[in-house]
Amino acid sequence: MTDILRSYTDLSPSTPRFHVSTVLQSIINGTYFLTFIKENFEPVLKPLCKALPLTFDQSTRAVLVRLLLKDLKTLSSKSRLFHKDAALALLALKTLGRVPVGSEPLTEASSLCTLLELSSSLYKEDRNASSEALKCVANTLLLYDHARVTFISKEVSGGEFCASMLEKATTPEQLFTLSRIMFLATASPSSLILSLVEDKRHGRTIIDVIAMKIDIVLSNVLGNKAFARDAMSELLKFSFNLLLHYPKLHGLASASSRSEQEFQSPNLDGLLPPLLRVYQNLPRTFPIPLAPPLTHAIHALVTIPMTPTLINLWFSATRNSTSRHVLPPQTPRPRSSSTLDRALNVFAAGRRSLSISSNSPASMIGNSYHDVVVRTMDLLEVVFSFHFPSNSNPDSREVREAFKNVLVGSAMSADTSLDELVSPLLALCTRICMMDKTSRKRVREWIIPPNLDRSYPLDERDDFLGKCIRLLGSVYHLRLKATVGEMLYAACDCDPSILSSLIGYGHVAGFLFNKGILSAPPPPSNDPHSSQRVVNPITGTYDTMPPGGLNSHIAEMTEEEKEIEMDKLFVLFDRLDRSGAPPPDQRKTAHSTVKSKRTPK
Prior knowledge:
The chain has 29 helices and four strands. By secondary structure, it is mostly helical. The chain has a two-stranded antiparallel sheet. Strands 3-4 form a two-stranded antiparallel sheet. Helix 6 packs antiparallel against helix 7 and helix 12 packs antiparallel against helix 13. It is elongated and about 105 Å long.
């Protein structure tokens, strides 16, 4: 590698430009090749990598980085690099900076200032070179945490600089790079976040800029333009950082509310409308129905509380709509049958009638929604039907292997879990139930219709309710298990009596136990069942007990059947003992616990 370093140092202003390009290209090709080997074949080809003549050692890489930065700072016809060499030189610098060992000079304040100055000075004459300079900054902030502190310091003022450039950016690629820089720069709480939210630049705060750019990028996503989805993801991640950190920095969070994030500033209210537009209009993705940037929109929405001033924005379409429509069927896609196709068929069947605007345009890539409740329920149904087909066991090996296989064909990380993918959507549905009584009733009646057929076990159903009940007993998906329980609990007015009455105490006993409710709650004062048939409070199905009651039922059992039932009881008692449950004489009655529970407004 000393040959390449010598070749570069031998360059001069009189060197033919094609030779300069050849040397720069050799740096790029050598770095790309080694990076590819390291990421894909290092365990097998590591000895070969050490023997390659193109291997950059730490000192050589550091010297090349410093030389490139110095020459880029003095671009002229009297320098080693001319202005027309800037794009290729910055690309070489970016490829060198992708490997942390030896690229530490990029983290220095002077280096970051040089790159920002280049992105600004080259913006009009060479957009490609300007973009490469910003990508060098983005890679440095990604690899080095301490570089983020330097970047937002007064010496560099990188956050302010990139915020101004974000306002001017128009193309998806520019927005992607600048949004990623801003996301990394605001990953930790700092005074920069306060300045961005509160100070106006050209009459706009960063909230106004983000709202404007989200709408621009959304139109690009719908037009299937390059970098549009990536730009949207980074914009939404940047928005999430502001929503997460600003209230704490502004002193709006009390000690009791920090963990729940139920605090907000009016300065952030402007983010809700564009976030809802993204959530309601982003088309479905394949092969996974729930993927970035939609997942990032959900993460951001979950952090926004339900203040009185925001309720009307959340549910404006629902409250303004007086008619109900069945969702239109989707246009058939020329694809082979798959789990996702079956999931979409469930959605397209329109088995429920819910509020949605009749003039919502339907297209091959999906519907445009104007009702956050409908959008959330449709997503839940499609996602659950895709990942937990039919009445499959969520803990089965087939379900887990199918998810791993589908990740291979997606742009998502291979270590993504079903828990972290689906739980935020369930949390959003929970918040919707908590904030609005009408929406809570709609969600409850969608999950547990008044005319629900209870003639067979609820946990064997292949609909959304059956999948939720099976997840309540999951061993592998602990986060999903908890968020499903919270969603059902919120949909039932946070009343354990209603929850047990509608679903059966046997299905929710573990969830209620974790909430401190140690025994079956009393039946609700108003019977939620519309059917005249008696519903078993334990199983949630129609009671099949004979007229003589339990004693008559036991009398009809054979001795063998009685022994089987006794074995089942012993197994249950053993599980209770192992879970640390207190003895029966120490358990609290549910009456006081139920009364102390606060029902949402």
